[in-house]
Specification:
- With 546 residues, this protein is α/β, with parallel strands linked by helices.
- The chain folds into three domains: 2-74, Alpha-Beta Plaits; 81-104 and 186-349, OB fold (Dihydrolipoamide Acetyltransferase, E2P), CATH 2.40.50; 127-177 and 365-544, Rossmann fold (3-Layer(aba) Sandwich).
- The protein is built from 14 helices and 21 strands.
- It has helices spanning 14-23, 47-59, 81-100, 107-116, 124-147, 156-159, 233-247, 290-310, 366-380, 397-402, 416-428, 441-451, 470-478, 495-503; strands spanning 2-6, 30-32, 39-43, 68-71, 168-173, 188-197, 203-210, 221-223, 263-270, 277-283, 315-322, 337-341, 344-349, 352-357, 386-391, 408-413, 434-438, 456-461, 482-489, 515-523, 533-540.
- A hairpin with a 5-residue loop joins strand 6 (188-197) and strand 7.
- Helix 7 (233-247) crosses helix 8 (290-310).
- The longest helix is centred in the first third of the chain and has 24 residues, at 124-147.
- It is globular, with a radius of gyration of 26 Å.
- The structure holds S-adenosylmethionine (SAM).
- S-adenosyl-L-methionine binds at residues 363, 413, 462.
- Belongs to the class I-like SAM-binding methyltransferase superfamily. RNA M5U methyltransferase family.
- Keywords: Methyltransferase, S-adenosyl-L-methionine, Transferase.
- GO terms for molecular function: RNA binding; RNA methyltransferase activity; S-adenosylmethionine-dependent methyltransferase activity.
Length: 546
C-alpha cells in the first residue's frame, strides 16, 4: 500500500526520516525520499499500519514538522480524458519550460545523472583505478574458488598463487576524452516513459530514466539532460522531442503502478560513424481504441521527423513494439512493426559495415568495441588454418572482423533477428567463410563443432551477463582441438563460475583436460559507471597435469 508523506523538510534524507519514523513506532515496509523533495513515498504492508501512522502524524510533530499522509494514487489521479485535454496547453508550456529553462544544477537533473552516470563525480584515472581493483578481486576469487575444488593440487600452476589473481591483468584500456568514446558514448539508450512528480504533487508525462527501482518504491521518471554524460547527445535530443509529444498525446503514458497507459518505453539506437538513427517505441495496447492508436502513432512519426529535422538529426527508422506484459524488458521475441523507414540502422567497425535490427545486440560503445577487437585479434594468434567459434555472436561483429585472417568462422546466436542481420552483414562485407547457427549455444555447440574443418579451433565466448551455461563449459573442455579460448565478460563477477568450470581438474563431470588463465585485460566500455568489459585468455594445459 503506497502513500505519500507531505510536509517533509527537503533537507531530510531517507535514512534520517526512516529513523525518525521508527522512533515514533511507525511500521512500514520501505521509504523513498530524495534530497530536495518535500514529500516522501512510503510503503505499508496493511491499511492498519497506514492508519496508525496517520494517527501518530496528527498527534505529534516529527522533527518539528506536521506530517500528513495521503494515498499515493492521489498524486497521480487518473484524469478523465476531457480534463486531460484541457490541461494540455498548460502542460506543453510547462514542458518547454522545464526543457529549456531548468537550472542546470537542479536536483532532478543531478539525480537522473547520478542514476545513469553514477561515477561522474570520480576523476577518470580514479574510475580506471577502481575498475582495476574490481577486476583483480575477481581474478583472485577465481584462484580461491579453484583451490577449493577437489583435486586442485594436481594443477601445478595454481600452487604458487596463494591468494593472488589467477593471471596477470595487463591493463584496463581507457577511453580518450572525446564525445563518443568517454563522453556521451552509448549508441543504445533505453528511455522509460512515465511520470515525474513535482513538489506540488502534480505529475507530468516524462521520457527519461527511472530514478530508482520500482520494487523499492520509486515510481518517478526524470527527463534526460546533458548531465547524463553516458547518453549520446542525439538520443538526449530525441528523448526530449518524444517527451514534448507525449505530453500532448491523446494516449496516456504508462503508469507502472496500475499497469495502465499506452506509451511505455523508447529506445534510441545510432550508428556513430554512419549517423543513422533508429527509434523503437514500446507501447501497451490493451484497452485502447485501434483508431486512436493508429492516429497517434502516425502523429508521433510526423512530430519526431519534423522536430528532429529542425535540429539536423536524421531518423532513419521508427518501429513500434506492442508489449502488454508487466516486465520492463524489451522482449526479443515480439517483432516490432515498422512505422517509418527501415527497421534497422548501420554502424561501421574495423572498416566493415554492420546492419543492426532494433532487437539485435551491438557493443554499446563503438570506439571501445574496436579496442576490444584489437585485443581479440592479437590474443587469438590466428592463422589461415584456424577455425573461429564465435559463441553468442549477435550480428556477427567479432567473427566477421576475424574472418579474413582464418579458414572458417562458425557463429551461434540465440536471437533470430540478429542471425538474419549477421547473414546480411556477411553478404554486405563479402565474407564467404562464415556460417551462423540460430539457437542457444548449449543446444547448437555440438553441431557447430561437427562443422569445423580445422584442427586448430579458437573459441571466443561473448555471453550475456549471466555467463555461459555449465553444459557449454563441459562441451568446450571435451573438444580437444580447442587449445585457446578468449572469454569476454560484460559482468566480470559472473566469470568466476565459468572460469572455475574451465580450469578445475579433470573429473567425471568435467572430462576434458583443463584450461589455464593466461592473461586478462579490462576494456572501459562504460565510462562513468562501475561496469567494465573483461577479456581473459585461457590456454589448454595438457602438459601441466601431473
Ligand atoms: C554480449 S552479447 C555479444 C554479441 C556479439 N558477440 C557482439 O560482439 O556483438 C551476447 C549475445 O548473446 C546472445 N545470447 C544470449 N543467450 C544466448 C544463448 N543461450 N545462446 C546463444 N546466444 C545467446 C544475445 O542475444 C546477444 O546477442
Amino acid at each position: 500500500m503506497e502513500y505519500v508523506i507531505r510536509n517533509v523538510p527537503t533537507w531530510l534524507n531517507k535514512k534520517d526520516l526512516s529513523k525518525a519514523l521508527e522512533r515514533v513506532e511507525i511500521k512500514f515496509d520501505s521509504l523513498k525520499k530524495l534530497h530536495g523533495w518535500n514529500y516522501s513515498f512510503i510503503l505499508f504492508s496493511s491499511e492498519e499500519e497506514a492508519n496508525q501512522a496517520k494517527v501518530v502524524f496528527e498527534r505529534q510533530k516529527i522533527k518539528g514538522f506536521q506530517f500528513e499522509l495521503e494515498p499515493a494514487r492521489n498524486v497521480n489521479k487518473k484524469r478523465k480524458h476531457t480534463e486531460y485535454l484541457q490541461r494540455i496547453d498548460e502542460r506543453i508550456k510547462q514542458a518547454n519550460c522545464s526543457l529549456t529553462k531548468e537550472d542546470p544544477e537542479s536536483d532532478s537533473k543531478k539525480a537522473v545523472a547520478d542514476v545513469v552516470a553514477p561515477w561522474r563525480h570520480y576523476s577518470y584515472p580514479e574510475q580506471i583505478r577502481r575498475k582495476r581493483s574490481a577486476i583483480l578481486a575477481v581474478l583472485a576469487r577465481i584462484t580461491s574458488s579453484l583451490k577449493s575444488q577437489a583435486g586442485s593440487g594436481s594443477l601445478t600452476w595454481l600452487k604458487s598463487l596463494q591468494k593472488r589473481p589467477c593471471c596477470t591483468l595487463e591493463s584496463v584500456i581507457d577511453m580518450p576524452e572525446e564525445e563518443g568514446a568517454r563522453l556521451f558514448y552509448r549508441n543504445k539508450n533505453e528511455f522509460t516513459i512515465g511520470f515525474s512528480y513535482k513538489d506540488d504533487g502534480l505529475s507530468i508525462e516524462t521520457v527519461g530514466f527511472a530514478l530508482g527501482l520500482f520494487r523499492e518504491g520509486e515510481v518517478g521518471v526524470a527527463s534526460v539532460n546533458e548531465e547524463c554524460v553516458t547518453t549520446s547527445k542525439k538520443a538526449i535530443a530525441i528523448a526530449n522531442i518524444l517527451e514534448v509529444f507525449i505530453r500532448s498525446s491523446q494516449l496516456p503514458a504508462y503508469d507502472k503502478r496500475t499497469h495502465k497507459g499506452f506509451w511505455r518505453q523508447a529506445t534510441v539506437r545510432e550508428g556513430f560513424r554512419t549517423k543513422e538513427i533508429l527509434v523503437l517505441i514500446q507501447v501497451q495496447t490493451e484497452g485502447f481504441d485501434r483508431n486512436i492508436i493508429h492516429k497517434e502513432t502516425s502523429r508521433i512519426v510526423e512530430f519526431l521527423l519534423s522536430s528532429s529535422q529542425s535540429i539536423n538529426l536524421e531518423v532513419h527508422g521508427i518501429v513500434l513494439q506492442e508489449h502488454n506484459g508487466i516486465s520492463n524488458f524489451v522482449p526479443t521475441d515480439k517483432c516490432p512493426i515498422t512505422i517509418f523507414g527501415q527497421p534497422y540502422f548501420h554502424e561501421q567497425l574495423m572498416n566493415l559495415t554492420f546492419r543492426i535490427g532494433s532487437l539485435s545486440f551491438f557493443q554499446t560503445n563503438t570506439f571501445a568495441a574496436e579496442r576490444l577487437l584489437n585485443v581479440i585479434m592479437e590474443w587469438g594468434e590466428l592463422t589461415s588454418h584456424s577455425t573461429v567459434l564465435d559463441l553468442c555472436c549477435g550480428t556477427g561483429t567479432i567473427g566477421m572482423c576475424l574472418a579474413s585472417k582464418v579458414a572458417q568462422v562458425i557463429g551461434i546466436e540465440l536471437v533470430e533477428e540478429a542471425v538474419n542481420d549477421a547473414k546480411v552483414n556477411m553478404e554486405m562485407n563479402n565474407i564467404q567463410n562464415m556460417t551462423v547457427l540460430v539457437g542457444k549455444v548449449e543446444d547448437k555447440l555440438k553441431t557447430a563443432i561437427q562443422l569445423c574443418r580445422s584442427s586448430q579451433i579458437v573459441a571466443i565466448a561473448d555471453p550475456p551477463r549471466a555467463g555461459l551455461h555449465p553444459s557449454v563449459i563441459k562441451t568446450l573442455r571435451n573438444v580437444v582441438q580447442i587449445k585457446r579460448l578468449i572469454y569476454i565478460s560484460c559482468n566480470p563477477a559472473n566469470l568466476v563460475g565459468n572460469a572455475v568450470g574451465l580450469c578445475r581438474p579433470k573429473s567425471n563431470a568435467f572430462r576434458g583436460e583443463p584450461f589455464k588463465p593466461i592473461k586478462a585485460v579490462g576494456v572501459d566500455m562504460f565510462p562513468y559507471t562501475e561496469h567494465v568489459e573483461l577479456v581473459t585468455l585461457f590456454h589448454r594445459i595438457e602438459s601441466d597435469i601431473k
